[in-house]
Specification:
The complex is a heterodimer. By secondary structure, chain A is mostly helical. Chain A has two domains: 27-94, Winged helix-like DNA-binding domain superfamily/Winged helix DNA-binding domain (Arc Repressor Mutant, subunit A, Orthogonal Bundle), CATH 1.10.10.10; 99-246, GntR ligand-binding domain-like (Four Helix Bundle (Hemerythrin (Met), subunit A)), CATH 1.20.120.530. Chain A has helices at residues 8-18, 27-41, 53-60, 64-76, 98-109, 112-136, 139-150, 161-172, 177-198, 201-219, 223-246; strands at residues 80-83, 89-92. The chains are: A mainly alpha, B alpha+beta. The A-B interface holds A 43, 48, 51, 55, 58-59, 61, 135-136, 138-140, 144, 147-148, 168, 171-177, 180-181, 184 and B 98-102, 104, 114, 116, 132-136, 140-142, 190-192, 204-206.
Chain lengths: 261, 250
């Protein structure tokens, strides 16, 4: 006998999510999308040697056949090349500006409302993590953040890399694995788009200033200030991206046939 | 705040907790000893391949002997120890420790040299228990990392260690603590909770603020709910941890 009173709307929404269409991307597509997201995050760059098919398969829990398929599709897109011999392997062959091109294509597939919504989701996760970090971080952890911020940026670093590294460390200081994982996931999506804004030196400076502000809030165990700082930063990034999006700076030619994950 | 130099009362209880961690650290010692015994045969600056084989064999032995499930284990070399890599991380994950951790070692060095689990064993030549922390490099989970320095001819060449998930550690540990006192709690060097007999005291919560690592008797704690409590804090012998129990009579 059912005795539980149910909120009909919420119940209906949850029920439909149970039977929602499954993600029908093949395993090979998932491997490929991971590598594309690695490129757009800037963790995989031109000339990088990818792990061997066997290493990739062991690490991702896929078959070597699946990884081979994924690599062959990327080869077809001109994003990797395989060389034989002792110094051989599969290497990333990303044209100059290729990463930016992939990001612009991704941005062009989004509507303005989708873009704003991604920003809201990203801000909510980061703000919650920052509040918890303000409550929980100890002095040593805050000193690590300080050193990270004080380090000289190297010219090989991608735009926004310092801010991104800083924010990832902050997310982990929430002491919530679920929040950190969600932040990492969003970071490879909306976070990668934010790196377009960080190519603008004025925006990047503003981002670094916000990080210093956030650090001060964490040091003072001021959760409210931490939240406010993070919200301002993300709001500024969304505003920048909406402008960029509206100015129609979408791709002139296509690198990939499909959008990024 | 009263400082107490006298041996803590109830040190039998303290020993029960020390022996719980002592057993875990013995496994770490065995792993360290095996590597220190076998590494010299690989030469002053080993190649990564034979080193990986040695580490993999050693951590499989560890996995079979230790009673808690490990989420990762291995060896991380100091800069330029290996002949063929500036940085090297021979680390395996998953329930069988069969999944090799893939990291971009050009940048990983910069990341892990900052971490407690790497820096403390190297600079202080002692075992360390780092965490609880969210480890977004390896386990992707709330983690404790046990590490020890590996020394060859007086030189530290790297650290060995293993990861325990808080999910696997917290409840067995709290059952040990419950036999001491319903509020007995183990804290780390930062005054954060590792585990507590009290189910409401979360792993990772900051219990003792501004603690300098000394034994304290009758230390006053102010809880978030406004209540206050006097506790004794006793550093556990040979461990970067302390046992916190309510001061008797309070």
């Amino acid at each position: 006998m059912k005795v539980m009173a149910r909120n009909p709307a919420a119940h209906q929404r949850q029920l439909s999510s149970v039977f929602a269409p499954l993600n029908d991307a093949t395993r090979a597509e998932q491997v490929m999308e991971r590598i594309l997201s690695g490129i757009s995050m800037g963790v995989l760059t031109d000339g990088d040697r990818l792990p061997s098919e066997a290493e990739m398969a062991a690490s991702m829990g896929a078959s070597t056949m699946t990884c081979r398929d994924a690599l062959s599709q990327l080869r077809g897109m001109g994003l990797v090349a395989t060389r034989r011999g002792r110094e051989g392997g599969t290497f990333l062959t990303l044209p100059v500006g290729g990463r930016r091109q992939l990001l612009r294509e991704k941005l062009a597939t989004l509507s303005r409302v989708q873009l704003r919504d991604l920003g809201i989701h990203y801000a909510a996760i980061l703000a919650a993590a920052s509040e918890l970090a303000a409550e929980g971080a100890d002095d040593e952890e805050i000193d690590i953040l300080q050193r990270l911020l004080d380090e000289e940026s190297t010219s090989t670093q991608l735009p926004g890399a310092k801010v991104a590294n800083f924010l990832l460390e902050v997310a982990a200081l929430s002491q919530s694995a679920a929040l950190t994982r969600e932040y990492v996931r969003l970071h490879s999506g909306f976070g990668a788009l934010m790196s377009l804004a960080h190519e603008d030196a004025a925006f990047d400076d503003e981002g670094l200033r916000r990080c210093a502000e956030l650090l001060a809030a964490l040091r003072g165990a001021d959760a409210e200030a931490a939240r406010a700082t993070v919200m301002s930063y993300v709001r500024a990034a969304v505003a920048w991206l909406v402008d960029y999006h509206a100015s129609g700076s979408s791709s002139s030619h296509s690198l990939s046939t499909k959008g990024l994950p | 705040m009263n400082q107490s130099n006298a041996p803590a009362p109830g040190s039998n209880e303290q020993r029960a907790v020390e022996s719980y961690f002592g057993e875990l650290l013995e496994h770490l010692e065995t792993l360290r000893g095996r590597l220190e015994g076998h590494l010299p045969a690989l030469g002053e600056h080993p190649e990564s391949e034979p080193l990986d084989e040695l580490v993999q064999e050693s951590i499989q032995q560890l996995r079979q002997r230790i009673r808690l499930p490990l989420s990762g284990a291995g060896f991380v070399a100091v800069e330029d120890y290996l002949a063929d890599a500036r940085w090297h991380m021979a680390w395996w994950q998953g329930p069988e420790l069969a999944r090799r951790l893939l990291v971009a070692m050009e940048t990983a060095g910069d990341i892990y040299t900052r971490r407690e689990w790497f820096s403390i064993p190297i600079t202080e030549h002692r075992v360390h228990i780092a965490g609880p922390y969210v480890d977004f490099l390896c386990t992707d989970d709330f983690t404790l990392t046990f590490t020890a320095p590996v020394e060859i001819a007086g030189q530290v060449v790297g650290v060995v260690g293993f990861d325990l998930l808080v999910a696997d550690f917290e409840e067995p540990m709290s059952r040990v603590l419950a036999q001491i006192n319903p509020r007995a709690t183990v804290i780390n060097a930062h005054g954060k909770v590792l585990a507590s007999a009290s189910a409401q005291l979360a792993c990772g919560a900051r219990l003792v603020r501004g603690w300098e690592g000394e034994n304290l008797h009758g230390h006053q704690l102010s809880h978030a709910d406004g209540t206050q409590q006097r506790v004794d804090i006793n550093v556990l012998t040979g461990l970067p941890l302390a046992l916190v129990t309510p001061t008797s009579g309070h």
